[in-house]
# Entry
Amino acid sequence: MGRLDGKVALITGGASGLGKSTGELMAREGAHVILSDIQIVEGEKVAESIKQDGGSCKFRPHDTTVESEWEDICSEILDDYGQLDILLNGAGVGSSAVEIEEMDMEIWRRCLSVNLDGVFLGCKHGIRSMRKSNGGSIINISSILGFSGLATATNYCASKGGVRLLSKAAALECAKKTPLVRVNSIHPGFIDTPMVAGAIQRRGPEFRDYIEANVPLGKLGTPCDIAEGVLYLASDKAKFVTGTELVIDGGFLAR
Ligand SMILES: NC(=O)c1ccc[n+]([C@@H]2O[C@H](COP(=O)([O-])OP(=O)(O)OC[C@H]3O[C@@H](n4cnc5c(N)ncnc54)[C@H](O)[C@@H]3O)[C@@H](O)[C@H]2O)c1
# Structure
């Protein structure tokens, strides 16, 4: 018996990093997984490899910043499976390592558009779809930078702080309605994915030193560390959990 047997899960940002790892774990736990992303070749590859390992998975191109694409993907899922039980809003972009005085509106908007507008649209259409079927669980990926600031990442921090409180407000709206939709946020620390590799490249090797010096457990986390947290919030074991923040950060915020 898997912990998600028969559930239907949509994972945005499923071609890479945390979304990919969560898709692999959810498929192993018995879910029908729909991975979506703007990286089409990579996404198809991940779905194929999950299928080869015996999981139920398909890939669907999807830009989370475009509302009509949310309408299309959600109605396709309801047509194909009759239900949507789990949504991981995992698509995101990093900051550009630019100080606020130098940050132009395009850099600001791009980050807010993917990291906050995309999650808002996901909650809006995810909740609508789940309420047409059996209810469900929405997990929004925020960050430790939804709690604490980082110089040269004003756009990223603003987007992740927004996701944290958007999730709570949506959870409260849903709490008294049936079927129930639970909404929670996850706050990863520094995790070894292409996004963090890119940040280390942009900010220089001293950024890795900063991470290792400031994370009490002394290293980067793995995508699986986050996938396990998502699995818990997605599963019926978390049926009394809504509006909460699950921090998985090697102790960073405990300091
Ligand atoms: N890696 C970390 O240390 C870390 C820490 C805290 C939070 N996060 C958050 O976790 C989430 C996943 O990040 P990751 O580390 O796996 O990065 P990643 O770059 O490996 O994966 C992000 C994925 O999102 C996709 N994406 C970007 N814009 C999109 C769009 N408009 N529509 C659809 N897909 C889009 C990318 O193509 C990519 O496949 C992000 O929200 C990120 O901010 C990551």
About this structure: Strands lie at 8-12, 32-37, 56-61, 86-89, 136-141, 181-188, 245-248. The radius of gyration is 17 Å.
